[in-house]
Amino acid sequence: MERLRIALGSDRAGHDYKTLLAEDLQASDAVIKVIDVGVHGQDKIPYPKIAVTAAQLIASGCADRALLICHTGLGMAIAANKVPGIRAVTAHDPYSVRCSIVSNNAQVLTFGQGVVGLSVARRLAAKWLTYRFDPNSSAAVKVEAIHAFETSRNSS
């Protein structure tokens, strides 16, 4: 299985989880590189900047996926989805995490530190690393339809 380059980021509300998840990611055999896009310590960088930075790393080919943490995960997903070509989801359960990759080829997973417990977040992140999208699956047609819509909308 190809090892992944993971962009990792949070705002202040997700910093504690980011710190612990960074250790898990760095120790994982599924990960070749962790790119920390912030925040660090008590930085007051707003979550949209963190999310967009991570998403741009994926769009430019410098990262394969991103794991982003804020209070609910929702704001990070909204901001990351503004970068063309990016599919970001918030998921707090195993089935949704699996489907984010297998059915939707989402490159960005977001968590809410205020929503999901740390042990659950750690287990979900570990499983997330094991999933791969099959470009020959029935889901590929649907993902391509999303891409085609986005491309046609951005070119008009």
> Quick one: CATH superfamily?
Sugar-phosphate isomerase, RpiB/LacA/LacB
Low-pLDDT segments? none
The total of helices stands at 6
Secondary structural class: alpha/beta
Radius of gyration: 15 Å
The count of β-strands is 5
The CATH architecture assignment turns out to be 3-Layer(aba) Sandwich
> Major β-sheet, in short?
5 strands, parallel
Strand percentage lies at 15-25%
| Count of the separate structural domains | 1
Calculate the terminal CA-CA distance, rounded to whole Å: 39 Å
Strands in their spatial order, largest beta sheet: 2-1-3-5-4
- Give the averaged pLDDT, no decimals: 95
Reading off the top of the CATH hierarchy, the class is best stated as Alpha Beta
CATH topology: Ribose 5-phosphate Isomerase B, Chain: A
SSE order in H/E notation?
Answer: EHEHEHEHEHH
Percent helix range: 40-55%
Organism: Streptomyces violaceusniger (strain Tu 4113)
Enzyme class: isomerase
EC number: 5.3.1.34
Family: Belongs to the LacAB/RpiB family.
Written description of the protein model:
- This protein starts with a strand and ends with a helix.
- The chain is of the alpha/beta class and 156 residues long.
- It has a 5-stranded parallel beta sheet with strand order 2-1-3-5-4, sandwiched between helices.
- The chain has helices spanning 15-27, 47-59, 74-80, 94-102, 118-128, 139-154; strands at 4-10, 31-36, 65-70, 88-90, 108-112.
